[in-house]
Amino acid sequence: MSKEILLPADRLIDPNVKVGQRDGTIIEKGVILNENYLEENLGNIGSVMSIFTAYPDVYLDLIKP
Questions:
Q1: pTM
Q2: Measuring CA to CA, how many Å separate 11 from each of 16, 17, 37?
Q3: What is residue 29's predicted lDDT score, i.e. its pLDDT?
Q4: Using CA atoms, how far apart are residues 26 and 30, in angstroms rounded to an integer?
Q5: What single DSSP character describes residue 11?
Q6: Within 10 A of 17 (CB to CB), how many other CB atoms are there?
Q7: Residue 57 has pLDDT above 90, yes or no
Q8: How much of the chain, in percent, has pLDDT values that exceed 70?
Q9: What are the extents of the domains in the chain?
Q10: Are 42 and 18 in contact (CB under 8 A)?
Q11: Using CA atoms, how far apart are residues 31 and 54, in angstroms rounded to an integer?
Q12: Residue 41 burial (C-beta neighbours within 10 Å; 0-12, 13-18, 19+)
């Protein structure tokens, strides 16, 4: 299960919308991807990418509005 890392409230652009900013770059949903997070979740990320590679229709169903 993935976890979101939320930005501190003072770095949120609008507290009603889950959008943040990090080093001048707007980050949707306030999620910060850093090296530590990627190292801790490499297995999960690899599993998801394997599924999306084998079944691209699943990925499209997830991102389709």
A1: 0.48
A2: 13, 12, 19
A3: 65
A4: 9
A5: G
A6: 11
A7: yes
A8: 54
A9: 1-32, 35-65
A10: no
A11: 26
A12: middle
Six token digits for residue 3 = 């976890």
Polymer length of the chain: 65
Residues forming beta bridges with residue 25, ordered by sequence position: 22
Is 22 in a helix, a strand, or coil?
strand
Number of Cβ atoms within 10 Å of the Cβ of 21: 13
Sign of CA dihedral 17, 23, 26, 29: negative
Q: For residue 19, which amino acid is it?
A: V
The confidence score (pLDDT) of residue 62 equals 87
Token readout for 7 is 């930005």
* 3-class DSSP state of 10: helix
Q: Quickly state the pLDDT bin for 11 (edges 50, 70, 90).
A: low
Helix (H, G, I), strand (E, B) or coil at 19: strand
Q: Do 15 and 7 form a contact (C-beta atoms < 8 A)?
A: no
